[in-house]
Amino acid sequence: MRKAVYAGSFDPITNGHLWMVEEGARLFDELVVAVGVNPDKRAEFDVTERLEMIKASLAEHPGVGVESFENRYLVDYAASLGAQYVLRGIRSQSDYEFECGMRRVNEDLKPEVTTVFLIPPREIAEVSSSLVRGLIGPQGWQQVVRGYVPPPVFEVLVERYGRGKS
Known about the structure:
Distance between the termini: 47 Å
CATH class: Alpha Beta
CATH architecture: 3-Layer(aba) Sandwich
Strand order of the largest sheet: 3-2-1-4-5
CATH superfamily: HUPs
CATH topology: Rossmann fold
Number of domains: 1
Number of helices: 7
Structural class: alpha/beta
Shape: globular
Helix content: 40-55%
Order of helices and strands: EHEHEHEHEHHH
């Protein structure tokens, strides 16, 4: 049984993350989406809110687990779940360089856990949580942001930041 962990801050989850989850669910027998809590990062949404948005966004993927973890290396967390794989996305050259370094460290820590990289399609390659957060505010933001996040996340964003003029 092939089990993988796909971790991130998911602040909030985007359509790019959703693509990764869908591909991960197709490639692995079991996939856990894990919200990593980084105390050095100021999150827009608390962990509970992020978990709720992820679960709502993955309603069509009942076999995908959703959890959170903190104060642990991702590879240690994955091994504690019995996962043999860590799933990571690469959107750019800088992601590639960073992820290659992390993959080597992960291999040093837990050689039994393999890092698997996926490259998203061009149309969502630049979508990130920070991009989405940066688009909120100006007139018409809803029209723009709606295309980058799952519907449950869009509803949360509209509730939090208002409808304004679209």
